Amino acid sequence: MHLLLVEDEKSLADIIKRGLEEEGYAVDVAYDGEEGLFMAQNEPSDLIILDIMLPLIDGLAILKRIRKKGIRTPVLLLTARGTVADKVTGLDDGADDYLSKPFSFEELLARIRALLRRDADVKTAVIGVEDLTIDMASHQVHRGGREIQLSAREYALLEYMALNKNKALSRTALSEHLYDHDFDLDSNVIDVFINRIRNKVDRGFQKSLIHTLRGTGYMLKE
Amino acid sequence: MLSSIKARIVLFYLVILLVTLSAMGALLYFSLHRIVHASIDSSLLSRAKALATLIREDDRETEFQFSDDVMWEYSSPKSTNYFQIRRVDGATIEKSASLGDAELPLHPVAGPAAFQTILLKGRMVRTVDFPVPKEGEIKSPGHNIVIQCAENIDDRITLLNAFGIVLVVSVLFIMILSASGGFFIAKKAMKPIRDISGTIDRISETNLSERIDEAHIPDELKNIASSFNRAFGSLERAFGRQRQFVSDASHELKTPLAVIIAHGEIALRKDRDPRDYKIAIAAMMEAARMMSLIIEKLLKLARFSSDRFTLQMEDVRLDGIIDRSLKLLRPLAGEKGIAIAMPAGEKYTVRGDSEALLETFVNILDNAIKYNVPGGRIAISMRKDGGFIVTEIADTGIGIPETDLEKVFDRFYRVDKSRSRQSGGIGLGLSISGEIVRLHEGRIKIKSKDNEGTVVSVYLKES
């Protein structure tokens, strides 16, 4: 999953980026409103975490402008002003959720998960594909009752595929969702990751879940 | 009841009306009373005089030559006219049949005749005692005789009483009408005041934007209304500033708090290298120091913003204050390679609080260093100007955009937020300096050119 974090307090932005990356998310950071607006409009992401008080363009203005442009990426507002009026304005302007500073990182993670699975056909933190289960809260993956150990990147890739199960996913789409914009999209690193996941998830089971679609990409199929 | 203006106006008005109407009623009543009595009295006196002309008297005897006509008037027991003739010593010589057993009492007479109203046989009767004069128009020998005439005046008293009652009832009626009319008028007159007070009641902390509609109130109340509106305007602005300040302060404090919590929580999520913990702790420390600085500055601002804070006023050498400020800031200036020029040997004394003034100049000089370019300059100069000592601090820094010049004293205002934060600015320094100089009845002027530098002039009263 690819997140965009717009936060002007560098120290806070950097530690949140680090914490999210440890959870397997790809995170881009914008440190002011202008940069944030540009990246929200031009870089594909699955979720935008948006601070309200920003230099140059404030968060609510960014929110209005991207919604006006028809960008429907879920937006989680972060702010230090926890007044009801602010929350109502933010939600009315098209935000999907709201978190007041200071916040618990665990809560931020839970809300990110909730927003990410909202568009997928998943209502709880556990996704099931045949006998494969993925617990998005604990990041534990089981198949046929056996636990499968995955690295953070492998997990992130599998989770994204599970959230989009039965859909064809191109290499470009997968890498965009897995890596921040510094990543070189031409590399075949996705194929390497797919192979590793295949070895762990499909090897030793009768039915293969991960399918290669020639000329297109990959699919996790039930 | 009397605490209301309406009741007071009505009561005052009723008292005046009552006094006026009562005076008029009394005048009417007593005038009529006099007219009625004067007419009775003149008729009684003419009768007495007529009787006197009929008296014949010689040495031995007093004789009356009353005609039948005269006697007829007094002879019936039911007649309402009476007479009685006495000697001066009181002995009755003759009296009318209409008197029956009763007698007209004899009154002492001073002057030609005496009139009295008495109760005779249960009736109101007017009497005259007329001593027959020894000489004059009445040629009568009966000079030792008193003629008393009387007339029943029950009907006329009844008439007077009825008139009196009509007067009292009329006055009461007019009073009641006037009272209700008065209340109505007073109520109407008070309506604009009630409207204004209603509006004032509606205006509260959460709804300070409403105003009294000055177009639809009487001229007399326009002043009050516009005074209230002005007061509400400044209240609204003050509340607005306060709300902005609280919101800004909470933002400024919650951000480092969020940094501390995020670093701590993420560091504790799993086992890490000691190096990672050190990085986390260092970041937490930095955020904590930032909070501590903000809190310290907020407390200072609170102290200097409240007018109750009294300065320790004394004669202060301003050049000494600048020296002390520079001593504190030289290390910071040295780091950025900034040269500070300060004229030596000049003595300037102001009235002020030395600690507060030190705070003021440290803040201004700190800005001049923080927002200066590396290797920049700061020039300090001092002069006298019409009872003020003016200290000018000119820097070669990034300057302040012209549109932002009026905001620099606003709390938490920074020209460039991200740059300020790196240099440790929190946007409270100039607010604090502004409050301190305000308490000293001085002023701060700021001139600035974008990317060329800023000149801050501090005016303080000369000692």
Give an account of the 3D structure.
The complex is a heterodimer of chains A (222) and B (463). Helix content of chain A is 41%, strand content 22%. Chain A is built from eight helices and twelve strands. In chain A, the strands form three sheets. Chain A has a five-stranded parallel sheet, with helices on both faces. In chain A, strands 6-7-8-9 form a four-stranded antiparallel sheet, covered by helices on one side. Chain A has a three-stranded antiparallel sheet with strand order 10-12-11. Chain A is elongated. The model of chain A has no long low-confidence stretch (mean pLDDT 86). Chain B has 463 residues and is an alpha+beta fold. Helices cover 52% and strands 18% of the residues of chain B. Chain B has nine helices and 14 strands. In chain B, the strands form four sheets. A five-stranded antiparallel sheet of chain B has the order 4-3-7-6-5, covered by helices on one side. A five-stranded mixed sheet of chain B has the order 9-11-12-14-13, covered by helices on one side. In chain B, strands 1-2 form a two-stranded antiparallel sheet. In chain B, a hairpin with a 3-residue loop joins strand 13 (443-449) and strand 14 (453-461). In chain B, helix 4 runs antiparallel to helix 5 and helix 6 (318-336) runs parallel beside helix 7 (354-370). Chain B is rod-shaped. The A-B interface holds A 8-12, 15-16, 18-19, 22, 31-32, 53, 55, 79-83, 100-106 and B 247, 250-255, 257-263, 265-266, 269-270, 280, 283, 286-287, 416-418, 421.
Termini of chain A, distance in Å? 21 Å
Write down the domain tally of chain A: 2
Mean of all residue-level pLDDT scores of chain B: 84
Q: Regarding quaternary structure, how should these chains be classified?
A: heterodimer
Q: What is the count of DSSP helices of chain B, taking H or I runs of 4+ residues?
A: 9
- Main sheet of chain A: which strands, in order across? 2-1-3-4-5
CATH class of the largest domain in chain A: Alpha Beta
Q: Shape of chain A, please? A: elongated
Largest interface (C-beta under 8 Å): A-B, 26 and 26 residues
Strand content of chain A: 15-25%
- The span between the termini of chain B is 58 Å
Give the percentage of residues in beta strands of chain B. 15-25%
Order of helices and strands of chain A: EHEHEHEHEHEEEEHEHHEE
Q: How many E strands of chain B?
A: 14
The helix-and-strand class of chain A reads alpha/beta
Computed structural class of chain B: alpha+beta
Number of distinct helices of chain A: 8
Can you tell me the CATH superfamily of the largest domain in chain A?
A: Response regulator
> Helix fraction of chain A?
40-55%
